[in-house]
């Protein structure tokens, strides 16, 4: 039973990685084509999540071989790289939003953002519930923590959906820039959490678990 659950957790981590790769590619392509800063930032966030997902997959792979109590050097390095990438993303989005507000830039359309965010909400909710179920059955703090990271992506999708819908229906200026600032806030938070986990090293679950 234990082995089957770890195998399921590993498969879920791989699904997360490949989904974020596809989502990141689609979001950055259409975000740049339609000049949609929120969608473009959402795509970059997905690419950073891939780095985080690789660290999680590696951890679960180790758990399948031996009991794991601490992060190894690969996982700590992955967390530091992920944290740095999130901080760079935060700075880039703030700069982009400031520039967009100053120049009065507006997206051509946010339809792709609506479609992609709805798909992401459905996918991340499924992954969150599945990871949480496996984590509780294994009584594994790392897997439960990973589920909560997926829940953050779930909430992030609502920011993209909200800003995309509001702009598409009402055409409110600067709403896209505000949406990208919301994504920047989540990116900063995720960056801080990544560095905290790398510094701590132990596999403990926070209060969100």
Brief synopsis:
The protein is mostly helical and 209 residues long. The chain has one domain: Alpha-lytic protease prodomain-like, CATH 1.20.1510. The chain has helices at residues 2-33, 37-63, 73-103, 111-138, 141-170, 175-200.
Write up what this structure looks like.
The structure is a single chain. With 209 residues, the chain is mainly α. It has one domain (2-200): Up-down Bundle (Alpha-lytic protease prodomain-like). Helices cover 83% and strands 0% of the residues. The chain contains six helices and no strands. The protein has helices spanning 2-33, 37-63, 73-103, 111-138, 141-170, 175-200. Helix 1 (2-33) runs antiparallel to helix 2 (37-63). The longest helix has 32 residues, at 2-33. The model is unreliable at 205-209 (pLDDT under 50).
Low-confidence stretches: 205-209
State the secondary-structure class. Answer: mainly alpha
CATH architectural category: Up-down Bundle
Q: Which CATH class?
A: Mainly Alpha
CATH topology: Alpha-lytic protease prodomain-like
Descriptive terms for the model:
Alpha-lytic protease prodomain-like; 6 helices
Topology summary:
Elements: H1 2-33, H2 37-63, H3 73-103, H4 111-138, H5 141-170, H6 175-200
């Amino acid at each position: 039973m234990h082995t089957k659950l770890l195998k399921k957790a590993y498969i879920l981590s791989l699904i997360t990685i490949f989904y974020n790769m596809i989502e990141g590619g689609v979001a950055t392509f259409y975000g740049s084509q339609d000049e949609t800063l929120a969608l473009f930032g959402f795509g970059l966030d997905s690419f950073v999540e891939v780095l985080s997902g690789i660290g999680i997959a590696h951890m679960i792979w180790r758990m399948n071989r031996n009991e794991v109590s601490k992060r190894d050097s690969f996982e700590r390095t992955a967390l530091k790289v992920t944290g740095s990438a999130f901080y760079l993303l935060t700075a880039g989005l703030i700069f982009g939003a400031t520039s967009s507000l100053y120049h009065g830039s507006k997206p051509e359309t946010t339809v792709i953002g609506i479609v992609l965010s709805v798909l992401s909400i459905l996918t991340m909710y499924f992954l969150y519930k599945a990871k949480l179920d496996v984590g509780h059955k294994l009584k594994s703090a790392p897997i439960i923590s990973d589920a909560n990271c997926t829940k953050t992506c779930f909430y992030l999708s609502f920011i993209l959906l909200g800003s995309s819908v509001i702009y598409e229906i009402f055409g409110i200026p600067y709403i896209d820039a505000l949406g990208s600032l919301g994504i920047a806030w989540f990116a900063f938070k995720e960056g801080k959490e990544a560095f905290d986990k790398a510094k701590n090293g132990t596999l403990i679950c926070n209060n969100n678990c």
